[in-house]
Amino acid sequence: MAPWLTIIIFLPLLAAGIISLFPKGKEETVRRVAMAALVIDFLLSLKLFFGFNAEEAGMQFAEHIPWIRQFGISYNIGIDGISILLVMLTAFISPLALLSSWKAVTEKVKGYCVTILLLQTGMLGVFCSLDLFLFYIFWEAMLIPMYLLIGIWGGPRRIYAAIKFILYTMAGSVLMLISILVLYFWHGSRTGTYTFDLLTLYGTSLPAGVETWLFLGFFLAFAIKVPLFPFHTWLPDAHVEAPTAGSVILAGVLLKMGTYGFLRFNLPLFPSASLHFVPLVSILALIGIIYGALVAMVQPDLKKLVAYSSVSHLGFVMLGLFTFNMQGIQGGLIQMINHGLSTGALFLIVGMVYERRHTRMISDFGGLAKVMPLLFGYFLIVTLSSIGLPGLNGFVGEFLILIGTFRANPVYAVIAATGVILSAVYMLWMFQRVMFGKVERPENQKLKDLSLREKLVLIPIIIFIFWLGVYPKPFLKKTEASIKNLITQVTLQQEGHR
Amino acid sequence: HTMEAGTEETSFLKELPLLIFSSLLGPAGIAAAYYPYIRNPQLPGRLANACRKCYRALLNKFYVDEAYQAIFINPAYHGAVLMWKEIDVKLVDGAVNGMAKVTRGAGRIARRWQSGFSRHYAMTLVLGLALLLIYYFRLEILWRLGLR
Fold first, then answer.
1. Among the four A157, A470, B99, B105, which has the fewest Cβ within 10 Å?
2. What is residue A23's three-state secondary structure?
């Protein structure tokens, strides 16, 4: 059995190494090699998808190599129903993001491609790590490339945004590191085995106080990443200043790491604390949904609007995850994928518009539908997907989440449902102001419609938007066993504490 | 608990009066429009003059749009702008940037110890050593002073 996961995770790193040897002036080749690496990575990930056994709840494609034995650290990776879709999403989005920036990034192209490839390795590693130490390494490893991406190839306020991003996220990560160490030492002193192996640590029984603090330690790191209100303010700045590809990867994949972290770590490691904090998390999630939507509505900057919409959408995901029932968690998981696709596509489109007009202010547009009918069509589909129109992918996730939330707490569900209305408000109003009406400004009259490259970037996403909306079963099926396992794990552990 | 699909029986007889009524509404509307606008063209004008207020209310669709604007749209919009400017920008971001300011300020104060003069560093060493010794021998010192 070939170590497919290792190959998939480290292929981008290898490609980055190869690219860094290229001399200056070979930009096109550099881009092509990077693109090839990412596409091959995606094709390899398909092997994971089709080789995945949906009945199996445990880890598949697992690899376990002891690394630093004295400390119980091992190279332990694997995927299950929860991470497989996220790995696929990562492998899918990155090549599209790189393709979208083909013409946009012309300076330091080599560094740019290397950064994206390193980011890819980091992200894939995060989703596959089953060893806490390894996870932490990959977690930190994906912060640096993102920081560089924003800080070097970003907009006018990029330094502020990049530093804000990295300090904010790192602050949370440090607390997570402390929690990891506490868990390591506690487990070690109680059972005699000092290990960072996640699956072993799942069974650790902790006294309520310790569990609460450890939960909070991890919570902060993930809550900042999601982003959960009130730890969200780094996101609008990061998105606005990041280059298009950076925004696409940030919104498409990086935000999901926060929600993934909750599923993979907080819930199974600290079940009683998780249960205890359901009201707090749910209320913060609800605030995120409503507040994010309302603030999105009044944004004059397109990218900031989409950034706040991410806060709102991921509020839905968080709400679903903390219902602890199948629909809620499955809805949350599929909505993670959906959000990655729709919001990724939104940022791609905003990037395309920006490339033409070098402005993101809604007031600078108007009537673009007449000038760019193809863009209008794609944009419309993506907008409707973001709103959650039935028939498109957004609806599947939203609906499952609402069902799950209603089962857990009807009041929360009602409040969340009003968020659906608000998402229609801000998206449609934005769409109307940008696309419809008369073409007031002369600068807008001569804009070119989508090029072949731009179509190539958007079409795969559009296909999945429809596919997931109409026939999500093959994707949902893969997640069921692992989610069921997780729910049992959490509720049983809960019983064990009583 | 399980969710069951609706299982009411719909009786056609119950629906019939409603069916007839709604089917008649269409032709009734046509007839109601036919008379004043084709047969008797003065009628609409005279009706309008008879009650100017009624006419204006109908023309402006009972001012529903304006009511919506005032009750829902404007408060929501201005409320959202307020939330954005006050909560997000001032409060939350203020807290975040405030933490950065505190760190910078602390650094500025702490920097004063780095004067560049070795004699100041030597002084710090001596002071630190003195404090350490005092702490280490605190009980002994207090006893000697007669306080314990």
1. B105
2. coil
